[in-house]
Write a structure and sequence with these properties.
Length: 291
């Protein structure tokens, strides 16, 4: 294996692990001081906004990896993808954090947020998140592919994937499992396909950071919040947009659109509980008391 690639992989795994070891307790205290407490599905008080930790671990690793690429005079395409990944994901995490900090939690779903805008002429925190996330998705997609149909498909994936994770983030560790599934789809769909911008190496610190908080989320001690759903959703969408063929991207867009439509009328939690293998997968990793 190439020495530079080994160095990047090392940083992608070790930096999040060290950050988690040194900073996780302090992060929980900070969230607690800011009053980032929400009721979970069992009506218990749980710290939310845990996606801040995931973002900080992964972003620190990606910054170190970018520095190595600069020193090693790495290919410009790889650098460009890394910079876009880091900048875009930071923007998405920011908009999610604003939504987490907002006291405006009464409005839910696309119909609710657009209804508030149409009927009350007010921007909910969810609408600001949608506007900021959509703008970020469009700018990143244009930087990746220019003014092409590929950019439109990528923008759709980047804009919708964060909300896909948010829709499933209703039970411990469920959003993390959906993130892992989408990342696996990107790999299976051709992570190393020729002609695609190199992306997979930048996903390593994100996957490592997500794995580090998994047991805390699964145990019901921490919720990712909109920060985590936005960040991990963007990371998954970025991986899909840079790894899949155009036709498969369109297929994924259709899947995302159908999920958003169904979410307005169907409870995904009820569907998951009613299907045996989905329920077993959903409960995997959770202690008995959180099932």
């Amino acid at each position: 294996m190439d020495a530079k690639l080994m160095a990047l992989l090392f940083l992608g795994v070790v930096v999040p692990a060290v950050g988690h070891r040194l900073l996780f307790a302090a992060c929980l205290r900070m969230l607690n001081r800011k009053g980032m407490i929400r009721k979970n599905f069992r009506d218990e008080d749980v710290i939310t906004g845990g996606g801040v930790a995931v973002f900080c671990y992964a972003a620190a690793a990606q910054a170190a990896m970018l520095l190595v690429c600069l020193i090693a005079a790495e290919a410009s395409a790889m650098l460009r993808v890394g910079v876009l990944f880091l900048a875009g994901s930071a923007s998405m995490a920011f908009w999610g954090w604003l939504d987490d900090c907002s006291p405006d939690k009464a409005v839910k779903g696309f119909r609710g947020h657009f209804g508030a805008l149409w009927k009350e002429r007010r921007m909910t925190s969810g609408m600001w998140k949608a506007w900021g996330g959509g703008s970020t998705a469009l700018l990143v997609s244009l930087a990746l592919y220019g003014e092409t149909l590929s950019a439109l498909a990528a923008a759709g994936l980047l804009a919708l994937s964060p909300n896909v994770l948010n829709m499933f983030d209703l039970r411990p560790a469920r959003a993390l499992k959906v993130f892992a599934l989408l990342a696996a789809v990107a790999v299976a769909g051709g992570a190393f396909a020729s002609g695609k911008a190199p992306c997979w190496v930048w996903m390593v610190p994100v996957a490592a950071a997500a794995a580090l908080v998994f047991r805390h989320d699964a145990a019901g001690r921490l919720m990712l919040g909109d920060t985590g759903a936005n960040y991990l959703g963007f990371a998954a969408g970025f991986s899909l947009a840079t790894n899949l063929s155009f036709a498969v991207q369109i297929a994924m867009l259709l899947v995302f659109a159908i999920l958003h439509l169904l979410a307005e009328f169907v409870s995904f939690s009820r569907v998951i509980q009613s299907v045996g293998w989905l329920n077993r997968l959903d409960q995997w990793g959770r202690p008995a008391e959180t099932k």
